Task: structure prediction
Amino acid sequence: MIRIVTVLLVFLMGEIGSAVFAAEKPLVYAGPDGKLNYTADNRGNRIPDFSRCGYMGGGISIPTLSVRETLKPGQTDSDDTARIQAAIDRVSARKPDASGFRGAVLLKHGLYRVSGTLHIKTSGVVLRGEGQKANGTILLATGKEKRTVIRVRGKTSIEEVEGSRRRIADDYVPWGVKSFSPESTDGLGVGDKVIVYRPSTQNWISDIKMDQIADRSDRKTKQWNAGAYDLRFERTVTAIEGDEITLDAPVVNAMEDKYGGGFVYRYREEGRITQVGVEHLRLVSEYEKGRENEDEDHAWMGVDLDGVSNGWVQNVTFVHFSHGVDLGAMAKFVTVQDCAYLKPVSIITGGRRYPYVINGQYCLIQRCYSQMARHAEATGSRVCGPNVFLDCLAENTHSDTGPHHRWAAGILWDNLRGGRFNAQDRGNWGTGHGWAGAQQVFWNCQTSSICVQQPPTAQNYAIGCTGEIVSGRLSDRTPGHYESHGSHVEPRSLYLQQLRERLGISAVRNVTIVAQRMGTIYHELKEQLAQ
Result:
């Protein structure tokens, strides 16, 4: 049963486009029918629906592809890169079946030495091992070259359909809504893939003060420029009624006339690969022993996915890498689950130790573990949500979890544990990160400290979280929205409840493990540390 929670802490401070919430009613609560209701602010902004995130748009189990090629470990000290790549290429040359699957390359348990990078460039191909523990399938990344070990990548191009662009007629489109009115719906149809385009105008950048970032003495600070922060949200039209269209997922950034409004247009895409995955492997990077916090001349990233739709990384362990999994800007509907990031090797400073990073759209990272990371779960610059991190655990972190730099929009941080959590104005950190994120929702997170600040024209939320509330790096910024601080709320997971309401309980069972087993999952991941 979903219970109504009391708002313990609400800030009603005025800023440009500030959101004012009713203190007597939580932002998400159960209605008489037991389903979630959402409290909007005075401009109609509300917590978004994140349930479309993940493989195949959420609620679909990751498939098991038939094995088409099987390899066993090679001779001691042999380089296995070429023969693994040849097996991937042979499967890639097969004709796909009706589901778009070509098949899996199975690497039997044992040690494989990889001196280069393995590439998956074709739809319907999976690289699979026989386990992520020390007795499973181990890919040992040899040598001193800083590189990615497994790259899953299509060459994506997105082209606007000429003549399809429509200006949005509404003076203000709130975040969290799925419907709005273009000036005309002519030429738009249900099922059309569209871009919702939100321009970044100079007056918006000036009003949020991102052209006034303080300079650093040790490096050049980059001010934000008009046009460089345009947001392009990929969506699908699900309904058209009169002059209003409805989308499969909500707008996660407000669009307002005085800041250039917004547009919608149809698009064509080429080059994205689909139904691809990496699973049940243990990746280990060679390095110079005794220089764990110094050596950087070794394999750097475990798995990189970009130009991918409907892909996955599951049950993969990364040992001695700087980066674990990176989902690029052209990755969408990707799930990363049940992975572990162990014993990283690098200098402990900027640009290092990112286990799980999202730069794409509609992505889900769940039930993943990390240790000694800097930014255990993070997003990059100008990330277009929705995206979700769910049920992840980070231990012994060196920095914070949250949006890392430059206006990631619409991210849910759901039941994460460990370290510090921030969604704030990072000022001149890096080369001028500034406002790292907007419409960031921290839900039932267990932290040592937390800071959410309210960007002008936007909002950030901490609901049901624990940990000390801190003012952030720039303490004069307006606080964001804190609710039920120190006491978890129902539902336990916002993402899973939203998914259940959209698709039913079977969809939840397809993608997750019940809450009572999460302690077991964490224990199993931590067991790998001793191996």
About this structure: The CA atoms of residues 312 and 335 lie 5 Å apart. The helical segments are 81-92, 202-207, 494-503, 505-511, 518-527. Residues 1-23 have pLDDT under 50 and may be disordered.
